[in-house]
Amino acid sequence: MTRAEFERRRQIVRGALRDSIGADFLRLQVETQMHPLLVLQLASEALGAVYRDIACAHQHGGSCECGWRPDLEHDLALLKNAIADSETDAAAQDLRHAIPAGNA
Ligand SMILES: [Zn+2]
Questions:
Q1: Cβ neighbours, 10 Å, residue 55
Q2: Which residue range(s) make up the domain with 52?
Q3: What is the pLDDT of residues 18-50, one digit of tens each?
């Protein structure tokens, strides 16, 4: 797979997950009136449960043969960094869309 094709697929997955998780967050937050951070915390728990299910399928003797072997410590660090990086990306994007004030 070329780098460009990899990036194209990555953007498809990123966009689809943002859309579906975002829509679920909004719907559930409106329905339950729970604090937004609590809903996000529950979303993180759900992601952890999904991780466990997928990791289980990749343990020795699991059903998937793609070759990935889960490493909880490494994988959690990767996921934490992804959250931190998305915040950095959002801040950078905010700056790109900011209208410069004044002209010094
Ligand atoms: Zn697999």
A1: 16
A2: 34-75
A3: 999 999 999 999 999 999 999 999 999 999 999
Q: Give the distance (Å) from ligand 1 centre to CA of residue 65.
A: 6
- The reply to whether 25 and 56 lie within a common domain is no
How many domains does the chain contain in total?
2
Residues 51, 75 contacting (CB under 8 angstroms) = yes
| Continuous H helices in the chain | 3-32, 36-58, 72-97
* Whether this model's pTM surpasses 0.90: no
Report the C-alpha gap between 47 and 8 in whole angstroms.
23
Distance 69 CA to ligand 1 centre (A): 8
User: Rounded distance, CA 12 to CA 46, Å?
Assistant: 21
